[in-house]
## 1
Amino acid sequence: MWKSLASLFVAQIALLPQSDDLSPVLSRLQNLRPTLDRIRQISGTAGASIGVIHDGHVIYKDNLRYRDVAAEIAPDSQTLYGLGSLTKSLTAIGIANLVHEGALSWDTPVKDILPDFHHKDPCLTNLTTVIDLLAH
């Protein structure tokens, strides 16, 4: 379910406008609410919180249904969620965007990005690439 939510949001915000006018993006995000709530219902998830950050600023946030069903308490920005493996797919999406922009390649050595990356085996330190880490 979470991968579906992540994919849906990435599809909507992957091409943020270069201008300061984010109203088309905000409109698309707001229009997604019924779909997100339907995914939440189908998956049996009690509640969800969604936030989108652009250039270091929160441009959109929404909270769906309940964090505590019995007490009917809505989630908020402080609600904690178990994300499971969602972080892996979001990391891969972020790296894919950097590859697409030419900032790095799938074969970029991790040590070139993270100078403090060291393994006890020097061969692994020197040869581990971005794709290696994502293929675990």
## 2
Amino acid sequence: MDQSCTHELSRHHSLGEEIFHFAGHNISIRESLDSFGALVWPGAIALCQFLENHQQQVELVDRAVLELGAGTGLLSVVASLLGARVTATDLPDLLPNLSFNLQRNTRGRSRHAPQVAALSWGEDLQRHFPLHSNHFQYVLAADVVEPHGRPEDLLDTMGYFCGRGSGATLLWANKIRFESDLRFAQRFQERFNATLLAQLPQQEVWIYGATAKE
């Protein structure tokens, strides 16, 4: 780990660490209480379990995978360990911890080194991620719906990467906490050909698979 990454991590407060086991590996995730995006949420854990348990249904080996709102990076780590070529994205201030978690858990373990990039939903997508050079087979998103967030920007971003002709499949997992989660799920189903792949009552998590509407 380089000194700049160490320096950035030192700015975070109340750092904790959680250990998970997926894809045959122990995964150590460093969290921070400074931001909602620096914590591991139930939707990410549920989608990790889904990917591990449905590897024939969701074939990730050598596939290009984009994660929106990667946060701590747990989901991107698991996708990478399952063989995917991962690009993990989030807001710029979350990237140092995200990069740290990806590097420590995939180095020497994964077929492809995961990439990290800044992405603000709905902002300059064509400039930063031109579609002619960014082709993803899967787009992952877990617990990205915030009560006071920007749902239309998130939907537009999902639609940008999973639009007609892209061939991308979107996998979205979310813990249903608020009325805003249900409203987003309704808008999501209006925008995409969506299928409820799993509903986990104990965790109150829904997992959807979706493709673009023609």
## 3
Amino acid sequence: MSVAVRPLPPELVEKAKADLFEDANKLQDSIQHLKDWIAKQPHLKARTDDQWLAAFLRGCKFSLERTKEKLDLYYSLKVFTSELNTLNHRDSKFMEILKLGITVVLPKTEKITDPRVILIRSGMYSPGQYTIGEILSIANVIQKIMYLEDDQLMVNGGISIMDLKGTSMAHFTQFTPTIMKKMVVAGQDAAPVRMKAAHYINMPSGFETLFNVGKTFMNEKNRNRLHVHGRDYESLYKFVSKDILPAEYGGNGGTIEEITDYWATKIEEYRHWLDEEEKYGTDESKRPGKPKTSEDLFGVEGSFRKLDFD
């Protein structure tokens, strides 16, 4: 698998320059700077593939200091959030869950400069059969592959559509305050992706209360990025073109089965790469200065960090 950074299509070169301050002439220097820095960190064992480091630079708008912080946090969380990633990609249960079509990356966009759209169907699994850690394991693997392969996501950011059809109180009770807090830190602070909007459809009664509580922890910018459509797909189509949605949602973006089959093949291709993932992380006993603790990363019980996606 090539480690060099793929050239961006011309439209994305312009977008990356305008939105991320990317300078193609300095990209390799920035990557080398990160490699040199990683080599000097006794506690950090991190990937140094060019394409991987480019993803983190883009996610941090080419601020080297922010990129270092994000990389360090990303690998620290492998130690501190193991309950969000409990299933190995080689486990038979992994493919079983993948085929349920819970995390569905839409292959189409209207324009190459549009954000990538990810559909999450949380009601598609039985909470009596699978844990939230097992469900998130599949999403984590898909995300890693996207960091390497999906230039549209890394340059334009992402949009999520949360379809809550079939979601029950048993699903919601899997999201303990600790799990929620760890998910927020992993998604907001450690992931190199800028989320542009979140759309909610088929919201069950009772969820609105939880949703409104969650909104209170967000700043105004991010509250404005949340959209609730109820069961009104026409309202959703104003933001996300019907054309790119899967056939099951009235669109022309392929069927969910076709999309999950694509990802099953893709994960098989990355099998050895994903095996390597096991060896990366941090050894807090070797961290210069004070080792990080759960309290440093997630705060004391009951405190919430403000959600800031960008």
